[in-house]
Write a structure and sequence with these properties.
The structure is a single chain. The protein is mainly α and about 180 residues long. It has one domain. About 90% of the residues lie in helices and about 0% in strands. The chain is built from 8 helices and no strands. Helix 3 packs parallel to helix 5 and helix 4 runs antiparallel to helix 5. The chain is globular. The relative contact order is 0.18.
């Protein structure tokens, strides 16, 4: 798999995440009812993509280990969400908040690596990381309140993750 294929896959993943976010925003009741499965599937895809991106880009980034760690944790959490539905529905708000926090911290740290490499647009990655961390903190402060707004939260986060995937491809294209 070459760099161009990874970029295409990242854009496809970004577009799919944005589409899923729009669907969740338009059908919040469906999003809440199927939140565990939706989050599990998209987290699995996102985690696998991050591990693949790490394997091909580890020499390009100083802190690429964060990308690998984020990918592995995302895959493990997604498997847990997909195969343990009873537990998932009870603890979904807390698990979701923790995932948002870790994903935000990971993107925030990655932004500093991009800045050190003098990559233009690193501020966008930092901004997305900060936004994800804020959503994670808000969801963690009152997880049951976030359950009420789960459809909206899922939709917004999917859209942000999709935009982030596309922005990362654009930033990588500028380096080539």
């Amino acid at each position: 798999m070459n760099g161009k294929t990874i970029k295409v896959l990242s854009v496809i993943a970004g577009v799919l995440l944005i589409a899923a976010g729009v669907v969740c925003l338009m059908n919040q009741d469906v999003a809440v009812l199927s939140a565990g499965v939706l989050i599990g599937i998209f987290m699995l895809c996102s985690g696998i993509l991050e591990v693949v991106m790490f394997s091909y880009g580890r020499k390009l980034m100083l802190g690429s280990g964060w990308l690998l760690l984020d990918g592995i944790l995302t895959v493990l959490l997604s498997m847990f969400l997909l195969f343990n539905q009873a537990f998932t529905m009870v603890y979904l708000p807390i698990l979701f908040a923790m995932w948002l926090l870790f994903s935000g911290v990971s993107k925030f740290v990655t932004a500093f690596d991009l800045q050190a490499l003098r990559v233009r647009g690193w501020g966008w990655v930092m901004a997305f990381g900060l936004i994800l961390m804020v959503f994670g903190f808000v969801a963690l402060m009152d997880p049951w309140l976030s359950t009420i707004a789960m459809g909206i939260t899922i939709g917004i986060v999917f859209i942000l993750q999709g935009i982030d995937a596309i922005v990362c491809v654009c930033i990588a294209s500028k380096r080539d």
